[in-house]
Design brief:
Elements lengths: L17 E5 L2 E5 L6 E8 L4 E10 L2 E8 L5 E3 L1 E4 L39 E3 L5 E7 L18 E5 L16 E6 L1 E2 L1
Antiparallel strand pairs: 1-2, 3-4, 3-11, 3-12, 4-5, 5-9, 6-8, 7-10, 10-11
């Protein structure tokens, strides 16, 4: 069953330097406008269950997640602040990317984190797609960029995000994780 693509509008700024780690290796992109990063999503057993890309698009970061082999239903999907994904719990990814020190969720009057995204809807065949545009953020560079000195990760949770409970949306265990690195 093909699931709908969720799209929400936003904005960001092009940065100058990206630095992230993938499987304990550090990557640095010193090009004037590091414009795309990608991540391979893996479950706790190491099986590939999807991919994600983050691309600078004008003054926005466009995130696309394609998942396969996940349980059917709605799952919280977030950009996390640290580019590490140690199984089984993926706690090394840290909390949600939150350079503006907000609370969690689009429905929280004190929210939302930059890493907060809509739930990804997974069909009976285990696949789902999510597209989201992050506003007021930059992929690389200084001043709270997503790809700062310790990188960033994309995490899929076991349950749906309620869009208001701080700090994680009450979305449950982390079931898949991928480190953003050079595309």
């Amino acid at each position: 069953m093909k699931m709908p693509i969720l799209t929400i509008g936003a904005a960001a700024v092009i940065g100058a330097t990206a630095c992230t780690s993938v499987n304990n290796e550090t990557y640095s992109d010193t090009s004037p406008a590091a414009s795309t990063a990608s991540a391979e999503l893996r479950d706790a057993t190491g099986q590939v269950v999807g991919s994600a890309t983050a691309s600078q698009s004008g003054d926005s970061i466009r995130v696309r997640v394609e998942a396969s082999g996940l349980p059917q239903g709605a799952h919280g999907a977030h950009v996390h602040m640290t580019g590490q994904c140690a199984a089984p719990g993926f706690d090394t990814a840290g909390g949600h990317w939150n350079p503006t020190n907000m609370q969690h969720g689009k429905d929280n009057p004190a929210g939302m984190h930059k890493g907060d995204m809509p739930n990804i809807l997974v069909g009976t065949d285990g696949s789902g797609t999510l597209e989201y545009t992050i506003s007021g953020a930059q992929l690389a560079g200084s001043g709270g960029a997503m790809l700062d000195a310790d990188g960033a990760a994309i995490v899929i949770h076991a349950g749906p995000d309620d869009y208001r409970t701080d700090p994680s949306g009450n979305s449950g265990a982390r079931i898949a994780c991928g480190v953003f690195g050079p595309a």
